[in-house]
Specification:
With 204 residues, the protein is α/β, with parallel strands linked by helices. It contains 10 helices and 5 strands; from the N terminus they run E-H-E-H-E-H-E-H-E-H-H-H-H-H-H. It has 2 domains: 127 residues, Rossmann fold; 69 residues, Arc Repressor Mutant, subunit A, CATH 1.10.10.
């Protein structure tokens, strides 16, 4: 996945570069601080996905450039990231054709999962500011492992084998996950986790 990153704060830009390049399959082809520079760099670098802050250097709004990007580079995916919990940003991003939208309160693993799922054709938008960060926080490491395996499509028998647990233990873990998250089924939890970038599926 060839990624172009736009972030006006140099320390965050450097952090994103260092963090994302640690993951297999991700190549940062360019990094810029102004939204207007995205289009210029698309002409010089083969790009699969743009990860951009919304408010960039010189107070440029990246959403104002989305239409031109989509018109001239229709195959390029766009993921916007912001620290401002402003619902108008979400609505505008959707109307302009942004593929996915995330807040800066997520982890690098969650961000990578959003990028990968966006490349696979999913549109990921937060249900509510901060919700994605907290919904799985109460799960134990084993419960998170169970959920991660579900997100990767493993059957219950395969999960039992991988974790070396009995059927009754697996049922107990699933019941605990449902009680803590409030979802009616483990499938619903898995769908929510993947769509909101809470589980890095390839690490299962």
């Amino acid at each position: 996945m060839r990624v172009l990153v736009c972030e006006d704060q140099k320390i965050l830009l450097d952090t994103l570069y260092e963090s994302l390049t640690k993951f297999s399959g991700i190549e940062i082809v360019a990094s810029v601080t102004k939204a207007s520079d995205i289009i210029k760099n698309l002409e010089n670098h083969e790009t699969d996905l743009i990860l951009t802050d919304i408010i960039t250097d010189n107070n440029e709004n990246a959403l104002d450039f989305v239409s031109d990007i989509k018109k001239n580079h229709p195959k390029v995916k766009i993921v916007t990231i912001t620290g401002f919990p402003d619902i108008s940003f979400i609505n505008k991003a959707k109307s302009f054709g942004v593929d996915s939208f995330v807040y800066k309160n997520i982890s690098v693993e969650q961000l990578v999962n959003v990028l990968k799922n966006t490349m696979d054709g999913y549109n990921i938008y937060p249900a509510k500011y901060g919700e994605g960060k907290t919904i799985l926080n109460s799960l134990t490491p084993t419960e998170l492992r169970v959920l991660r395996l579900y997100c990767n499509g493993f059957e219950r028998s395969e999960i039992m084998e991988k974790l070396n647990i009995s059927q009754s233990s697996l049922k107990s873990h699933i019941s605990s996950i449902l009680n803590k998250t409030g979802f009616p089924s483990i499938a619903r939890v898995a769908i929510y986790a993947v769509k909101n970038g809470l589980i890095l599926t390839e690490t299962a």
